[in-house]
Amino acid sequence: MSRKISILIVDDEPSVRESLYSWFIEDGYVVDVAENAKKALALLETGSFDIILADIKMPGMDGLEMQRRIKALNKDSIVIIMTAFASVETAVRALKDGAFDYITKPFDPDDLSHLIRNATKQINLQTENEVLKEKVSSLENVEDLIGNSDALKKVLKQVESVAQSNSSVIITGESGTGKELIARAIHSNSPRKFFPLVSVHCGALTESLLESELFGHEKGAFTGAMYNRKGRFEMADGGTIFLDEIATISPKMQVELLRVLESKTFVRVGGNKEISSDFRVICATNRDLKKLVENGTFREDLYYRLNVVNILVPPLRERTEDIAMLVDYFITKYCTSMSRDIVKIDPAALRRLEEFEFPGNVRELENMIERAIVTGNGKEIHLKDLPLGKDIINSAVESLDDLENKHVLQILNKYGWNISRAAQALKVDRVTLYSKIKKYGLKQPGKK
Amino acid sequence: MTPQHITLISFGHFEREFLERIAESVKHEYGLEVVIDEKRLDLSLFYDPARKQYDGNNLLKEIDSLYASESFKTVGMFRVDLFIPILTYIYGQAFLHGRTAIASLFRLNNERYGMPANDKLLLDRFIKEVIHELGHTLGLKHCHVPGCVMASSTYVEDVDQKSRELCHKCRVELETLKDI
Question: Whole-prediction pTM value?
């Protein structure tokens, strides 16, 4: 149930105050009146009102000045300005100064009802938002980052410490490790969380498309540009821009990006007006940017501009203890979305998953579980439901020696035990290969 | 005459049968005796030439001061276009928890909206308006229950959407108000 909305009517005309008072009282609002701005401000200093309906023209302090002072007392106050005649200029001034809306006297009863209903909706949204903000803060909005491993905890600690700052961040990690989730976690724990997080997948766009995506364009800038369009930097004003696959951008775009990061201003493609935007940059890559700098494919100055904080997201094989939790999470997620009963996982299947390399990381595990739910028996996920293929590491093979033993034998068999060719393939010399054969007691099949 | 009655006073020409039907409905809804009366008033005193309408606030005050003491609740019924300074028009007006209300037929008439005349609909709308304003004098505020006669109506279509009756919530509220 919504609380009662309070309205303060400020107008020097008694008949206006009286009429509005009766109108709102009949509508069930809590209403008070003031005959001038001074009295209204005095009332606002001692109490609070959700909506202030103020006449623009009053003797002494006018409605606009009063609005400025009201906003200084409480920036969230909803002020509706009443004008005696339609004056676009005054209305625009009122709106620019933060008025919720304006209405021209006399009002159509329906317009007044609509206006107050909209304001009430806004108040309720604000209240809900406050409640939600508290909820989000306590949750830290990292519910998608599943796991309890030390590796993940280390990343989350970095997220926590970097979130409050305004520094640029590079998130490095293999594909599918959840770099975008880390970016979201940083954004949603930062003071910028109530502004947008704008994502750009740089790798998916050509140079010209990326330019238009990032900076926007003016109508007619190129064939097909029929309307002005805001770029991602503009959209991210107040918030965060997430540039995924940053290593893929062209040298030209690297220069452009560096310039924008330094000045926080840019010009739309085909335009000449400079636009400024206040955004934070978070980048992600699965490449070693430092190496790209060394071999000259990524600008060093841009690298240093972006790499204020570097977060390394571990691959799934380095946090295998999280696999069970991740499996549970994905089972619940997909069973719920498919309106199915929650399935179990056979302990043997889970064990095999924990042994799997997961070159595609968490994303690969997620896809595997989704597929198993779709194709499985609806009760339990078994080994046969999981596309683990030949990549599965036998549980008997645990040490590097075991692996080397197996691999050397495979290569020898492949080349029919031709020592020279096998050594060449293994990139070791013949002496080393002989010592490996001896070490592991390898024998050519069919020979004693 | 016991003070526990409602007086409906017509200003301007109203058919007797029309008034009786209103009285009947009001009696049915509030369970009080209803008296029909007819008075004359110089409406030009309430006419605003700039707006070409009649000042509802002043009319309400005038009816209250001249006639309200004679009964428990008094409703002044008009055929003219009413306004209050802040609104472009009103269908009616009342003193909340007061003795007096006013209502007008003017904007309830189908012909005003380019529709064919419909006397039955006009009567129905006016009955709802009178019951609504009387509800305010009894202390009821606007109700959000769809169909309740105390729902706020800014267009005739809104009036047509609601019934002539108070919803259960308003009835309970009315009982509480009576106890106070």
Answer: 0.50
